[in-house]
Please model this.
Amino acid sequence: MGWQSNGETVTTLASHQTAGLVCSHHHLYSSLARGMPAPPAVPTSFRGILENVWWRLDAALDLDSIYWSAALGAVEALRAGCTTIIDHHESPFAIEGSLDAISRACDDLGVRHILSYGVTDRWSNGSLVTDIPASMTDGARLGLAETERYVSGGGNAMVGVHASFTCSNETLEAAADLARRLNIGVHIHVAEGPDDKDAAQRIRHLVDDTWLLVHCVHLEDDLPGTIVHNARSNMNNAVGYARPARFKNRVVLGTDGIGADMFEEARIAYARLREHDVTATPDTVWQWLENGYALAPASRNDVVSWNYDHMNEPWRLAFTTGVTATDVVIEGQPVLKEGRVTTVDVDEIRAKAEEAAKRLHQRLES
Ligand SMILES: [Zn+2]
Model:
């Protein structure tokens, strides 16, 4: 399998090694969601989950919690042999500097990252609105400015958009425009749930091959771009099966914020694929994993050693749990040695993240 070879580089990998893995859709801000206070009522729909869990959480984020959440997520990524995180971030009341906070956390750990700030018009004058305004809100404007500022400072990014169903046409057009101007792609949730089923109509005239289309569960038409499949998240939100094998597009794998263990994601994506097609093989899903290198080619040069041999055999990996990275070398630098992160004091990160989580959860209670 190509994901085990190092492409054109001269590094030769042993059978217990692979290149660095790529998480093609993450939300590092979700690390501190674990243990958060339960919603006031049990959500009964996809929109209910967004409103009562994720939009409640992202509204309570500040730059401090964003940093510690990202640092904790980056530790988990290294331990799972994931060396590039393609992140999608939203913090509507702490927009400016948010991408720097995430970038700093990833840099401190040594994890490669491609960031985006997800713009939306669902906030108006500090409150959540159901009817999306006809024109761009100040929040969306600030979000685009954050991306432009981050990219101008040398940051590796895509233009983030939450989803077309929470954005005005003006915002969608401005995001596409900024992406063209900065010569980068757009990273957007597409047709994840029934609420966004007209996404294709809304963005068809804007999309090109550089766009990263996340979920696409209810996408019936073809659009250009790369499709990110997030098997676990889709099951957890009961939005349906995306049937990614039906697309002609390049398909890659993301976790949608459920850590960065790409083998676990791949195993579950395989089980889900197989549930719908008993003739399918793990090679299909491992190809989706490998496709991540088209978005993050540098990870191909990283070297991950595992506690398991046969790392080039998807049939074995699809049925072997507990495969763990022991050593990770990124850009020639060892960042994980015998299971220990070398770049930071992980105990300190855990302690600080726990304090930040307590403060965040208190804000959610109030
Ligand atoms: Zn997502």
In short: The first strand starts at residue 17 and ends at 18. The CA atoms of residues 119 and 140 lie 5 Å apart. The domain at 21-298 is CATH 3.20.20.140 (TIM Barrel). DSSP finds eleven helices and 16 strands in the chain.
